[in-house]
Write a structure and sequence with these properties.
This protein is mainly beta. The protein is built from twelve helices and 56 strands. The chain is globular. About 40% of the residues are buried.
């Protein structure tokens, strides 16, 4: 046996709480802390109604408590700064700003810099259309102020508020054992509802037309659902259950019908049975963990005193279609075998008056209903195409175009927009023609600013329409990562942002459509705030961002092209070491997941929760290579191996990469890929893998307690994209399973996991470790007791992992052998 493999394996169970190893490199390196405290990005972009003022928040690694306000007439110098105010922030009126957080609020006139502070604050918000704002204080006093911060009215005993942040403000208050709902929107408060019951929950409906109140009678412990019609101030109520079984009530408006859809959810308390019995025909295994529920559905028309129940023993789930006459009905869990994450449903159209159902759709993954209730679109999971179904006539039409996603209705013009990776598509419902919108071909498109209402989130049923009050925004991203924006309003297209090479983190336009603000970044440019003037066509910098991050400006990047065996063109991102010397050779770390090249223009912000800080490795003299990986029919593991080999071949003649000092790392899916490649490749000097599957066959037949689902779907139709069951192609599953080849690992490997990980169970790391140990392979495993799938919620462990991974790579790729915890395993230090 090779001497490299004659190493006595050991595992380090690192139960790290506050402090770690004395006498070694400190995990709280002061220079790294200073860098993290100085490095920040920009986010939470806000723009005033006329576009003169903008505001952004500084987001650091561990906090985001600084808000800056800018005047486009005086760029790069904030006119106002708010610190430790992470609550609601908004422009109040044309030339004022309100910020809140940490029990305080502050209003400022941006023209004359007049300020008004407020203390003991619980909540704030701006009513933008009224140019007013309100403050709910900790002593339960609610005060409303005009745009000059002069108090107009107030109310005692306020408990909570409901607002649309534009015109509507309703207050829930308590006094003398009674709870009141008061309309605070106008000049004079109007009481709209009073009750002696205990209010458990209240909220506004989508349009702001109703307030729904869930309340409990504390004597009888009965639960009532009360609807307050804010248009005519009428009140209706009905009993929905008992306090010990009631869970919640959901409500949505039936568009244009003055009717409400109500979904009442209650828990079923089953008898305690030993043993716990699991049936093969059970299609709702989530209920085994989270508890069984039953649902009751109602439609409540404005003219009815009580809601009408929607029920039929043949169906377990109903969903509205913006109609008083029809609903959708289905049995999603019957014989569901978890080959997909949620059931692909066979849908019936149920006639409420006739109590009759007709099957209209099969294998539906998603349904989008028109706001008029005249038709709907259903995505057929087997055909992979959308089907238009006309509700009144029953006619169906298959849209003969694959790759379409997220339809958005424009009913006024009888058309539907679709996102896709190859352009924005427009389907003409009259002509039944689907074609790309001119100027979008070849671009990945993303649509925003729609009016969207979820009708059933579990089974992906919704309405999505073009808004009458705001333009539809379309983001276009080309294959070389250039980004542009189009807007669509009342049938007219406008280019609001010409293509830029930077990544656009956020985009906001003023209400007049004359200017747009963007937060832009690149791999060598920290985020900046830009202003675009549509009239003049000029672009200017409003805020240069973090100009102190000098290391970012010096980063060098190559985009490396290559092809896998199937001939697919892929790319890899190669980052050069800091202070790169073309006369030297450097080690390289290859970090893998899936597609990486689409992030070529992203700023390298150190917010890693998996111990891998790209910027720090560049400063420490490493090349970092992020290659694309795509999964082909041969399976995820073999596909990853093929892509990584092709990517390395593209760099084989690079004069500055030490081909003998290349390491491979990955986390989660990248951890699985690294595990597999480690069993098949001799091109790497060392491996590092985190939270990855080692045994995909065991994982396939396992139960995920993170989302309470079997994992079969993840392999057949999820991220692994095998597209076949284990029974259909056992050979493919065996050939792509890392642990089956664990005896072939030929380089040292560091494994890590969190013991609280329920996404990829920590014992996959243990299994791989045991296999490596059994065959005398060089391995160290790190088990973090407070870690989950990553170390986001255990920052001390994350710092420790960050230090250990750097020490690991320095040990094997830079021959820096004086690391005790590694030497304890690799006692023959000169061997590696």
């Amino acid at each position: 046996m090779d001497t490299k493999l004659k190493v006595i394996s050991a595992v380090f169970f690192l139960f790290l709480m506050v402090s770690v190893r004395a006498g070694e490199k400190s995990v709280s390196d002061s220079a790294d802390q200073q860098k993290n405290q100085a490095q920040y990005i920009l986010g939470n972009l806000l723009v005033s109604e006329d576009g003169r003022w903008s505001a952004v928040r500084k987001i650091y690694v561990s906090s985001k408590d600084t808000m800056l306000v800018f005047d486009r007439q005086k760029p790069d110098l904030p006119v106002a700064t708010f610190v430790k105010m992470n609550g609601n922030t908004a422009f109040s009126g044309k030339n004022a700003f309100l910020a809140s957080g940490s029990g305080r609020a502050e209003w400022i006139n941006l023209l004359n810099k007049e300020k008004k502070p407020f203390e003991n604050v619980k909540e704030t918000a701006v009513l933008s259309s009224q140019k007013r704002f309100f403050i709910l204080y900790k002593n339960n006093i609610l005060s409303v102020y005009n745009e000059n911060a002069t108090m107009q009215k107030s109310m005692d005993n306020a408990v909570s508020i409901h607002t649309d942040y534009e015109n509507i403000l309703y207050v829930i208050s308590k006094k003398d054992g009674q709870t009141y709902v008061t309309d605070f929107s106008g000049n004079n408060p109007i009481e709209v509802y009073k009750t002696g019951r205990l209010i458990k929950r209240s909220h506004l409906t989508e349009s702001g037309g109703y307030i729904a109140v869930t309340e409990t009678d504390e004597k009888s412990m009965e639960v009532f659902y009360t609807i307050v019609d804010l248009k005519n101030k009428s009140v209706r109520s009905f009993k929905v259950g008992e306090a010990n079984t009631f869970i919640r009530a959901e409500i949505s408006e039936i568009s244009g019908e003055r009717a409400l859809w109500i979904d009442i959810q209650s828990k079923v308390i089953p008898p305690v049975v030993t043993p716990d019995i699991w049936y093969g025909s059970d299609g709702d295994l989530q209920a085994k963990i989270s508890g069984q529920q039953e649902k009751h559905y109602f439609i409540w028309r404005d003219e009815d005193l009580l809601p009408a129940p929607v029920q039929d023993k043949k169906f377990t789930v109903f969903a509205p279609v913006n109609s008083r006459e029809h609903v959708l009905a289905f049995n999603p869990r019957k014989n569901f075998r978890y080959d997909t994450r949620v059931p692909m449903i066979n849908v019936y159209l149920y006639h409420l008056k006739q109590n009759k159902a007709v099957e209209v759709l099969r294998s539906s993954r998603e349904i989008v209903v028109s706001s008029s209730g005249n038709d709907l679109l259903s995505y057929h999971s087997e055909y992979k195409k959308w089907i238009l179904y006309k509700i009144k006539s029953g006619q169906q039409f298959t849209i003969d175009q694959e790759g379409l996603e997220k339809p958005v209705y424009d009913e006024e013009r009888q058309q539907v927009f679709f996102e896709s990776k190859t352009g924005l598509y427009l389907f003409d419902m009259k002509k039944r023609i689907c074609s790309p919108v001119n100027g979008t071909q070849g671009s990945k498109t993303t649509v925003s600013n729609t009016d969207t209402v979820l009708l059933n989130s579990m089974y992906h049923i919704s309405t999505s329409t073009v808004s009458e009050n705001k333009p539809l925004l379309v983001r276009l991203q080309t294959s070389d990562n250039k980004t542009s924006y189009l807007s669509y309003h009342h049938g007219k297209w406008t280019t609001v942002l010409a293509p830029v090479i930077n990544n656009i983190r956020e985009f906001r336009a003023d209400q007049m459509g004359k200017t747009a603000y963007t937060l832009e970044e690149n791999y060598n440019m920290p985020p900046k705030l830009f202003l675009y003037n549509h009239i003049t066509g000029k672009k200017s910098v409003v805020f240069n961002g973090n100009t102190n991050d000098r290391t970012a400006f010096a980063i060098k990047q190559d985009i490396v092209g290559y092809k896998n065996r199937e001939g697919r063109e892929l790319k890899g991102l190669l980052y050069y070491p800091a202070e790169f010397d073309p006369s030297k050779k450097y080690p390289m770390i290859v970090s893998i997941y899936q597609m990486r090249s689409n992030r070529s223009n992203e700023y390298l912000f150190n917010n890693s929760s998996i111990g891998f800080d790209v910027g720090k490795y560049l400063e420490n003299g490493y090349f970092i290579f992020l290659p694309d990986i795509v999964f082909e029919k041969k399976g995820a593991g073999l596909s990853a191996l093929d892509c990584v080999n092709a990517a390395l071949d593209a760099l084989i003649n690079h004069p500055n990469i030490n081909q003998n000092k290349i390491g491979l790392t990955g986390h989660s899916m990248g951890g699985f890929e690294t595990n597999f490649i480690a069993t098949h490749s001799k091109r790497f000097a060392a491996f590092l893998t985190g939270s990855g599957h080692s045994d995909i066959i065991r994982a396939y037949f396992s139960f995920n307690y993170n989302n309470n689902l079997p994992l079969t779907w993840q392999f057949e139709n999820g991220q692994y994209a095998f597209n076949r069951s284990f029974a259909d192609d056992k050979e493919m599953y065996f050939k792509n399973n890392p642990v089956h080849y664990v005896d072939q690992v030929s380089a040292p490997i560091l494994l890590w996991t969190g013991l609280k990980d329920e996404n990829v169970k920590w014992d996959h790391t243990m299994e791989f470790y045991i296999g490596l140990k059994r065959y005398g392979k060089p391995v160290i495993a790190l088990f973090y007791p407070e870690g989950g799938h990553n170390l986001l919620h255990s920052p001390k462990n994350n710092v420790d992992l960050t230090v250990r991974t750097m020490e690991w790579w320095d040990y094997f790729l830079k021959d820096q052998k004086e690391v005790e915890w590694i030497r304890k395993e690799f006692d023959d230090a000169d061997t590696y």
